[in-house]
Amino acid sequence: MEAGESNSGNERRIISKDSSWCSQFRNASNPWMARYAYALIFLVANLLAWAARDYGRGALTEMKRFKGCNGGKDCLDAEGVLRVSLGCFIFYIIMFLSTARTSKLNNLRDTWHSGWWSVKIALWVVTTAIPFLLPTEFIQIYGEVAHFGAGVFLLIQLISIISFITWLNECSESEKFASRCRIHVMFFATTAYVVCLMGIILMYIWYSPKPSCLLNIFFITWTLVLLQLMTSVSLHPKVDAGILTPGLMGLYVVFLCWCAIRRQGYQSLLDSFGLVSIEPAGGNCIRKSDSATKTDWLSIISFVVAILAIVIATFSTGIDSKCFQFRKDDTAPAEDDVPYGYGFFHFVFATGAMYFAMLLIGWNSHHSMRKWTIDVGWTSTWVKIVNEWLAVCVYLWMLIAPIIWKNRQTGST
């Protein structure tokens, strides 16, 4: 029996090394190729959710009961997104439960992850169709739960990005690359800071043209303060983390601030809640705001890029399970070890299904979204801002925590 399993494993290795990509995919011998199939399924789910939001009213007119939901005349569109998202979530949760803790190649769970595509495509179609038979109340509950799941996805993505930046800095400072990468590190760090400062200046010009734009001015100014704080802590003698990591983190937080204040429907949403706005009426805190009400080719390109960015971010985060290992394992992986954590990979895609739903409905199931728009509205603004502040807190903690832990160990001895 053992000899048979060994021969089967050797055959799979031969197929994996010598055959074409199509053969590897068909014979379930390449888990790296399987990633792209799951990403393609995720992309199709994103496109289905977008179609349900922008064109679902015409396609689902026979489903009269959707029109009586609590969201009013636009609730059908948001519900269509949530139903597609729920189907995608169920599919990846099933894959998570069936592949979690897979550690070795050539076993049944590895074959299930990398093969059986006809069965899994049929499973995905069924899980996508089932939510359209569920009552509105259940979908609304899922919409509330999806807020939490999307937050989990953002936290996982945040830790993955910070871990990658830290790893890049450690590689550049290692004995092997320190002498060769010194000039490159200074160049990239300087470029990062120049881009950060230029981005902040442009945000002041574009999004706070008047002194009365207090909220935008606060967001941009606080981003500048956070950039200075990260640089000061990183260059502190006790930390000595270099200048590259705060520069790259600065790019990330400036990007989040830009995404937060580049919104549409901001003033009208505040007024709809009966809140007193501290920004001028009419959207005058955004230059060329009149063009934002039209759907042009730039809006379509921005939407397509945003959808692709969601898929790429989910894909890259899903294969980065090592950044969540609390204990570093310096031993070399065995030849038959799985190349990445299958369970973590599917869990990230499951939370990503909730995340793309929140982006398409503006984090509010009762928020009316125009065609070819994504992640706009007051709620989306605060999600980005909180994500920016949380990123800085996590980064600073990763710098300070080793020092605190070392001091505690010294004091206890």
Automatic annotation (TrEMBL):
Pfam families: Serinc (PF03348)
Subcellular localization: Membrane
Domain of life where this protein originates: Eukaryota
Classification via InterPro entries: TDE1/TMS
One Gene Ontology cellular component: membrane
Primary site of residence: membrane
Keyword Cell wall biogenesis/degradation tagged: no
Transmembrane segments: 36-55, 76-95, 115-134, 146-165, 185-207, 214-235, 241-261, 297-319, 339-364, 385-405
Organism: Glycine soja
Keywords: Membrane, Transmembrane, Transmembrane helix
Keyword Nucleotidyltransferase annotated: no
Annotated family: Belongs to the TDE1 family.
Protein name in UniProt: Serine incorporator 3 isoform C
Membrane disposition: Multi-pass membrane protein
